[in-house]
Amino acid sequence: MKIVQFKVEGPYFYKTIELYGFLFGTDPIAMEKQFQLHSQYPNFEGYLMIKDNQVAGYIYGYTSVRGQYYHDLLANHLHPYTGWVKDCMELAELGVHPQYRRQGIAKQLIHTLCQNRREKTAVLTARKNNSNAISFYQKRGWVIIREGFYPNVPHEFIIMGKVLR
Length: 165
Prior knowledge:
Layout: E1 2-5, H1 13-24, H2 28-38, E2 45-51, E3 54-64, H3 69-78, E4 88-96, H4 105-114, E5 121-127, H5 131-139, E6 143-149, E7 157-163
Parallel strand pairs: 4-5
Antiparallel strand pairs: 1-2, 2-3, 3-4, 5-7, 6-7
Helix pairs in contact: 1-2
């Protein structure tokens, strides 16, 4: 296995979109547009874990700033905890194919993404009923900041944060 930088014009872009669709049951065309939009955000950075020329896992994040759709949703919900979204990286996506889970891929990807970030904090969201993801993040120093977050979907999410520096 090897980690490569994630780029929307890269050779693994469509394989990443396919994996995302497989994991979350979403429309690949809509996700292609979202990934392309996110790649234009400040300090976008992403990585892929490649095994046998397939995308086993992916991660990306960017600097969260006012005017970005998700930043503004988070900032509104976190009021009065807005210190979390100032000088902040938003960990937007992390996914690992079920065939490759429990092999340390997510751990390697999150470490690679966070190790050289210059932002003070990082935030992410996870579905409240996804106890495996929540536990995974908590073992890596993430804390639950707020519950009861419904980002224009019927499912409850929690907002987690981590101090990076």
